[in-house]
Specification:
The protein is α/β, with parallel strands linked by helices and about 140 residues long. The chain is built from six helices and five strands; from the N terminus they run E-H-E-H-E-H-E-H-E-H-H. It is about 40% helix and about 20% strand.
Length: about 140
Amino acid sequence: MNKKSIPAQLPRHVLVVEDDAIIGLTIEQTLTDAGVPEVEICPTTDEALAALRRKQPDVIILDVHLADRDDGWAIAELVRTLGPDSPRIIFSTGMPEDIPEEIAGLGTVLEKPYEPEVLVKLLTEPKREGIISRLRSKLAHD
């Protein structure tokens, strides 16, 4: 059996904000198996904010309905204020229609349940700029 090579474009550090332990561990295993060296799981908004203060990840996989808050997308709004080098955001939700349109534009939305391979493939694609980044870029070049 041939061992697959690890794509060079995989992020080095992924923060998973997920309050369902089984889903969080499944995402962690998927990312570890794919070759992501550092995966951190935070089940609450407060833990996610503390993790962001400690070290900025390359990617945040964000459940938008957490047990402690029902507006997990507020983390995405905060992250986008970090500027053009802010972490890539992937919303992971069973109810994508609950994410306000302007917030959904800050990242990519994956509807649960999704296959682990879909997440890994998404991580190897170029970073998609959110609407605020596109506006800033447009204003900077005009």
